[in-house]
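Cast an eye over this sequence plus tokens and walk me through the fold:

***
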Amino acid sequence: MTESNVNSLTTELGQGKLAGVILDSVVAENFVKQNPDKYEVAKVKLPTPKSQQDISVAARKDDKKLVTRVNKVIKQLKSSGKLDQLYKKAEDKQAELNK
């Protein structure tokens, strides 16, 4: 993900256009450090390849309902195998775009 994409996503998050974003852990933690009263990093473990294990989900700090829902949906996606399918689809799309 490019820096401009991250800036666009975090801007839309701040404007309320997005309920949350998935970012590299370091990027997410830096974003939260800059906005400690508004956001927090959700404690979500995603089954990812080692090359992509530093991914986090960020959501508005006061939106506990969203964090609970995100955790529940991720758990359901993991157990059904759908999460692996989504990762494969995203990897294929990224490879296609990088040609």
